[in-house]
Design goal:
Blueprint: E1 11-15, H1 21-35, H2 37-42, H3 50-66, E2 72-79, E3 88-96, H4 98-110, H5 114-119, H6 143-165, E4 169-177, H7 186-201, E5 204-209, H8 211-216, E6 223-230, E7 238-245, H9 247-260
Parallel strand pairs: 4-5
Antiparallel strand pairs: 1-2, 2-3, 3-4, 5-7, 6-7
The chain binds coenzyme A.
Length: 267
C-alpha cells in the first residue's frame, strides 16, 4: 500500500498534562454542562455560582490528571496545527483504569515476578500517595442528588459491571468534545485508545451514557445493559444507560462471523 496517499489525521490524541487543566475545564463546562442532563441535575445552581462551579470542576480534573499513574488516565484530542494556526484542544476522555492496573500487577505476580510488580510505579497502586480529595459542591451542586448519584452509580457498578465482568473491565468515566467539533470523529478517536486496550488485555469497557452518548457509543460496538435511575428522596429522577463494550463477546462474534464466511470447499 502506498502510505503517502493516506491523509494524516486532523486530530491527535495524547495523555493530558496539568498544564492543559484549564482547557480541559473549559471543554467540560461548554460541553457536559450544556449537553449532558446529568450535569445540570447534579449542579443546578452552577449558573448562580459560576466561579465556584469552575473552581470545583477544575479541582476535579486536577485530581484526575495528577493521578494518572494509579486510578485515572486522562487523554486529550488536539486539532493538529496548520500553518499559522496553533494546535487546539477539542476533547478529552477520563478513564478509570484501576482494574487494569490490578490485573496487570496480578498477572505479573502470577508469573512470579513479584519484585518487579512491587517496584514498578506504573503497575501497582501507590499506597503512600495521598488520596485526592473530592470537591464539595455546596453552593453550585445539589447535595442530596450528589449523594444519591455516588451511592447509585457505585451500587450499579457492583451489580451490573462487577457481576458481568469481575475485574476484567475498566470504565470510561467522562467523555466530552468541544461543541464546535461535534460529529467530526473526535470522540471516536478518544475512545479508540480504550478499545485498543480492551482488545489487548482481553477486558471489557463499562460506562454510564448520557442521551448523546447513547447515540454515539453503539457506533463503536457498545451495547446497552440496563437503565439506571438515580433519585434523591421526593425529587426528580434522572436516568442513565449502563453500557458495555464486551471484548470477549466481540472476539467470539467476530470469530463466528469469520468462520461463517469461510468458503465451503466443493469437491
Ligand atoms: C457524545 C459526544 C462525546 C460525541 O462526540 P463526537 O466527537 O461528536 O462523536 P463522533 O464525531 O466521533 O461521532 C461518531 C458517530 O457517533 C454518532 N453520533 C455522535 N453524536 C451523535 C448525536 N448527537 N446524534 C446522533 N448520532 C451521534 C454518529 O453516528 C457519528 O457519526 P457521523 O457523524 O458520521 O454520523 C459529544 O456529543 C459530547 O461531548 N456531548 C456532550 C457530553 C456528553 O454527553 N458526553 C458523553 C457522556 S457519556
Amino acid at each position: 500500500m502506498d502510505h503517502s496517499t493516506i491523509p494524516r489525521s486532523r486530530f491527535v490524541v495524547t495523555e493530558a498534562l496539568l498544564s492543559q487543566l484549564d482547557v480541559v475545564t473549559d471543554i467540560a463546562l461548554s460541553s457536559l454542562a450544556v449537553f449532558d442532563p446529568a450535569w445540570d441535575w447534579r449542579f443546578p445552581n452552577r449558573l448562580i455560582h459560576p466561579s465556584e462551579h469552575r473552581l470545583l470542576t477544575r479541582q476535579k480534573f486536577h485530581n484526575f490528571i495528577a493521578d494518572k499513574n494509579s486510578k485515572w488516565r486522562v487523554f486529550i484530542a488536539q486539532e493538529t496545527a496548520t500553518g499559522a494556526t496553533p494546535s487546539k484542544t477539542v476533547g478529552f476522555a477520563v478513564w478509570d483504569v484501576s482494574n487494569m492496573q490490578s490485573r496487570t500487577a496480578a498477572l505479573k505476580t502470577d508469573r512470579q515476578d513479584r519484585q518487579t510488580a512491587r517496584r514498578s510505579p506504573d503497575l501497582v497502586l501507590d499506597s503512600t500517595a495521598k488520596p485526592p480529595t473530592s470537591p464539595h459542591h455546596e453552593k453550585d451542586g445539589h447535595p442530596q442528588r450528589l449523594a444519591a448519584w455516588a451511592e447509585t452509580t457505585s451500587k450499579a457498578r457492583r451489580e451490573l459491571f462487577d457481576e458481568a465482568f469481575g475485574n476484567r473491565y475498566f470504565s470510561l468515566q467522562i467523555l466530552a468534545v468541544d461543541p464546535q467539533f461535534f460529529r467530526q470523529g473526535v470522540a471516536t478517536l478518544l475512545c479508540n485508545w480504550g478499545i485498543k486496550m480492551a482488545k489487548l488485555k482481553n477486558m471489557s469497557i463499562a460506562l454510564f451514557a448520557s442521551p448523546q452518548g447513547r447515540l454515539f457509543y453503539p457506533t463503536l460496538g457498545f451495547e446497552a445493559i440496563s437503565t439506571v435511575e438515580v433519585q434523591a428522596s421526593n425529587d426528580e429522577a434522572i436516568q442513565l444507560i449502563a453500557m458495555a463494550y464486551d471484548s470477549r463477546s466481540r472476539i467470539s462474534a467476530q470469530t463466528t462471523r469469520e468462520n461463517m464466511s469461510l468458503p465451503t470447499q466443493q469437491h
